[in-house]
Amino acid sequence: MGRLGTRQGGPRAQTTEAVHVTPSRNEAFNQWLAETLPDPEIDKDPAWLSPQEKQWFEEIFDGNGQLPAHRLAEVIFSRRIQLAYAALDLLKAHAAGDLTTDLGELKVFSNRDSEYEPTGEVEIHGEQVRTLIPDAAMVTVAAAVQAFVADTIRRVWPVCGEHRYGLHPILTPTGARWHCRPGSHAIPLPGRAGRSAAS
Ligand SMILES: [Zn+2]
To answer: Strands of 127-128's sheet, edge to edge?
Structure first.
């Protein structure tokens, strides 16, 4: 019996057709992620991705298709550098209102050939930017700026205007915040809050 005859036949033909169906976009995405992230060139466990990180990988997949691991590693490295510079620019402007000191010496360092991080290291004043999400990068870079200010001019920055204690950067479901522990309240960090994870 020819293939056409089988397709027009009973339930068995339907089963055959289902096997040959093209994987859906979601199936193709999840398969690509499961195969590519554990590759030694990336060495990441897909199970540990936050929903925002997974969304970022979805946008990479939709825009570029099934990138091989070494190409995806480059995209991840570039993303971290971009997030680090964007957060540092916003924080320098944020700090300029409070501090007269020039933060120009505070810079982003990147090393694609790190032996510790297969996708490359992106670092600011000892803080490693490992995230792919703007709000999380803002928290990391805020901690770096804070440490830089403490180390170079021996100042606590920023300070809560109400409680007079030093604030700490934290990530909340609604974005990056300066958290005041004694007052149990939070002040937004600059930029990004409420925007798409990949914007
Ligand atoms: Zn406070």
So the answer is: 108-111, 121-124, 127-128
Amino acid at 45: D
* Residue of 153 and 80 predicted with greater confidence: 80
Is the preceding peptide bond at 134 cis, omega within 30 degrees of 0?
Answer: no
Report CA(189)–ligand 1 centroid distance (Å). 14
Amino acid at 43: D
Structure tokens at 21: 């169906």
CA of 179 to the centre of ligand 1 (A): 8
**Is residue 149 within 8 Å of residue 69, measured between CB atoms?**
no
Q: Which one is predicted more confidently, 19 or 67?
A: 67
CA of 90 to the centre of ligand 1 (A): 22
- 151 backbone dihedrals φ, ψ, rounded to 5°: -75, -35
Is residue 198 very low, low, confident or very high in pLDDT (cuts 50, 70, 90)?
Answer: very low
